[in-house]
Design goal:
single chain; 304 residues; alpha/beta; Nucleotidyltransferase, domain 5; 2 domains; 6-stranded mixed β-sheet; 6 strands
């Protein structure tokens, strides 16, 4: 199986560029002089946990843990655009029953050309894709650690040049992914990430319970995670999620440019349903690498 690579100029804070050419050859072919060789990432099972560096950044991606509801053919409706878009409440009322996606797209275009209200746009953008509240509620299951399943994990160890990736296309592979996480957890390394206290840690916890995975060492989870974890969001924004800046907006302001560019979590479901596993692997590797770069900057200023 071949994988994409990091192929752009990115920050190399605290990275010894002279040593990067001496890393072990990645498990796929590259041109001998290709600069991408320096940013190859590996499929997780081919990598051993390094003995040096006491921290690792990790990132999980998920999709709903139940099958997509059956699609129902919905006929277009007659409606008055101005009445539907009168307020956020009238918009919600219109979509309280299943809607034709083209109807939602028509309303979305009208709102973008008109008042551009954030709340109304959020409703319309979801409905233009999903077409009904049932589908939207199903898609939102991926935002709740208790109602989704893990499809990928990216790990970036401190003092390592290459991120590692695990993919979980089925329950067996998800169990293996969780086991790989606990193998690293057993080493005593401290996990770091952005908003991991509320999401990633809890997702590992929920899936380990639901899949009845025997864990060799218990997790400390929650706002501060004991001595096992560092949530960069809580360190940078002590007020929590309500005060925090979205990671994709925060990173460029600090000179960190994720190799995956504009790809974000909203694209994960489409990648999984479309069988774009290599694209998903590249994205989760990019996020893990980016969060380690963020950690390096925070670590240089804060006592963690």
């Amino acid at each position: 199986m071949s994988f994409d690579v990091f192929n752009q100029e990115v920050s190399t804070l605290d990275v010894d560029m002279n040593s990067m050419d001496q890393i072990e050859e990645p498990p796929f072919e590259l041109e001998p002089e290709s600069p991408a060789k320096k940013w190859a990432w590996r499929y997780g099972e081919d990598c051993e946990c390094p003995s040096e560096g006491n921290f690792f950044a990790y990132d999980l991606e998920s999709v709903p843990d139940t099958p997509r509801p059956e699609e129902v053919i919905i006929e277009p409706r007659m409606f008055d655009i101005s009445n539907v878009l009168k307020s956020e409440a009238t918009c919600k009322k219109f979509f309280s029953t299943p809607c034709n996606c083209d109807d939602a797209e028509t309303l979305l275009i009208a709102e973008r050309d008109g008042k551009k209200r954030k709340g109304v746009l959020n409703i319309l953008e979801k409905m233009a894709v999903a077409g009904g509240e049932e589908i939207v509620n199903w898609m939102n299951r991926s935002k709740n650690p208790a109602t989704c399943r893990i499809v990928s994990m990216g790990i970036q160890h401190l003092n390592e040049d290459q991120p590692q990736v695990w993919l979980a296309q089925n329950e067996k592979e998800e169990r293996e992914l969780i086991a790989a996480f606990f193998d690293i957890h057993m080493t005593g390394k401290i996990r770091v990430g952005y908003n991991i206290a509320s999401y990633d840690d809890m997702l590992i916890f929920w899936r380990a319970i639901k899949l009845n995975v025997r864990v060799p060492k218990k997790l400390h989870v929650g706002r501060w995670g004991g001595k096992q974890s560092i949530d960069l969001m809580l360190k940078m924004f002590p007020g929590g999620l309500s005060d925090a800046i979205q990671l994709k907006l925060l990173l460029p302001s600090l000179g960190i440019f994720p190799p995956a560019g504009e790809i974000n979590g909203s694209h994960v479901l489409a990648m999984v349903e479309g069988g774009q596993w290599e694209d998903l692997a590249f994205y989760v590797a990019s996020d893990a690498w980016s969060e380690m770069e963020l950690f390096k900057r925070v670590m240089a200023v804060l006592e963690l």
